[in-house]
UniProtKB/TrEMBL annotation:
This is Metal dependent phosphohydrolase. Residues 38-133 form the HD domain. CDD domains: HDc. The keyword Hydrolase applies. GO terms for molecular function: hydrolase activity. Keywords: Hydrolase. Gene3D superfamilies: Hypothetical protein af1432. It comes from the Eukaryota. The keyword Nuclease does not apply.
Length: 248
């Protein structure tokens, strides 16, 4: 990796990221609040998103907002901040990350041209990055942020043969995984322990059910019971009947 830029051009894949004060500031902010492993994951996601923007057609007549895509992917996992005092107890990690990125935009003197619409689009890209059933049907920037982040998990196995082994290797060599698989397990299980009710209706809870609250199986049976109790069939659906009785 080049010593001249923290986000170097990758000639083999033909990828370059915008070198703007906002992107540099976002990268510094990410490094301040997350681990080196998470930093590299977010940077790889940005490279994948831009690579895929060159391969996936989109219907918008407007040019892609590349700075927004890169900013969103770099900041998308602020909800994994190492300082838990920065995180909410009642919101999903994706929403924490989106809120933190929005606060950064609103406070940054270098956020030029970020009107309400652009800021909302960035918020959506982060908040929906784990929800393909929403993200894939929104604006191209939101869609590409989601696919770029997903690509860092799947690499050449991303459906559609969109990423070659060579392209994947160049990005991962530039920003190594640094034990991402084991750290991801620790983070997901930690969220199940730290704010369980934010994990019951999404994939994070799957980690608690499978691996417990510490990644080693501790508390997984009780967590599974609690998660089931909050499910639609167990919690919401019966409430309709109770409401109907009250209305009679």
């Amino acid at each position: 990796m080049s010593s001249e830029s923290p986000l170097p051009n990758l000639p083999g894949s033909g990828i370059s990221l915008p070198d703007t004060p906002l992107i540099s500031g976002a990268l510094d902010h990410l490094k301040k609040h997350t681990s080196p492993t998470v930093v590299n994951h977010c940077i790889r996601s940005a490279y994948f998103a831009i690579l895929l923007s060159q391969k996936i057609p989109h219907k918008s007549t407007e040019p892609l907002d590349v700075e927004l895509i890169v900013f969103a992917t770099i900041m998308h996992d602020l909800g994994w901040a190492t300082d838990k005092s920065l995180l909410s107890k009642d919101k999903r990690f994706e929403v924490d990350g989106a809120n933190m990125a929005r606060n950064y935009i609103e406070e940054a003197k270098i956020a030029v041209g970020w009107d309400k619409h652009r800021t909302q689009l960035m918020w959506d890209a982060i908040a929906l990055h784990t929800s393909p059933s929403f993200a894939l049907h929104k604006e191209p920037e939101v869609m590409l942020a989601h696919i770029g982040i997903t690509a860092d998990f799947l690499g050449p196995n991303l459906p559609g043969d969109l990423i070659t082994i060579k392209e994947n290797k160049e990005i991962v060599d530039a920003f190594p995984r640094l034990g991402f698989k084991s750290e991801l397990l620790e983070i997901m299980c930690g969220l199940c322990a730290f704010k369980p009710e934010t994990t019951y209706d999404n994939f994070v809870g799957d980690f608690g059910v499978e691996y417990g609250l510490d990644g080693k199986g501790t508390g997984k049976e009780e967590f599974a019971k609690q998660r089931l109790a909050f499910s639609m069939p167990r919690f919401v659906y019966p409430a309709i009947g109770a409401s109907e009785q009250d209305e009679d």
